[in-house]
Amino acid sequence: MAKRKIKVHKSIDKANMKQYEINGIKRSDEYIYFCSVCKKITCLDRSYSSKGHRLICDRCAMIHFPKIDDDTHYRHIDYQALLSWCTEDNQNQSEFADAKQTESNQSTKGD
Ligand SMILES: [Zn+2]
Fold it and tell me: In sequence order, which ranges of the chain are alpha helices (DSSP H)?
């Protein structure tokens, strides 16, 4: 399979990851995220991402990851391709994990 070339806006990608780090899935219905492909405002419920990384709105997902159902001929989203694209080259993921680890390590109580 050929590698997909979808232009991701880096600054939006960063902002989304930060937003996700702060809120997680708590505010999933609030329009506080931006599609990293078309720049339109969206929310977690209407988009796909790897913890905010490569967040893509449902409209873009349908355009870039189409899958035609053999039986119904309906256009669906190819979730498998979408998921592997979202998780691809997410280097910040480990950075976040490291930061959280050092935080929890600071629980030294001396009495
Ligand atoms: Zn979009």
Answer: 10-23, 58-64, 79-87, 92-105
At 61, list the tokens. Answer: 């997902």
Residue 37 CA to ligand 1 center (angstroms) comes to: 5
Give the distance (Å) from ligand 1 centre to CA of residue 59: 6
Total count of domains within the chain: 1
Record the tokens describing residue 106, joined without a space: 């600071």
Residue 78 included in any domain: yes
| Inside any domain, residue 5 | no
| 45 inside domain | yes
CA of 65 from ligand 1 middle (Å) equals: 12
Global pTM? 0.75
Question: Does residue 102 surpass a pLDDT of 90?
Answer: no
Residue 56 backbone dihedrals phi, psi, to 5 degrees: -130, 130
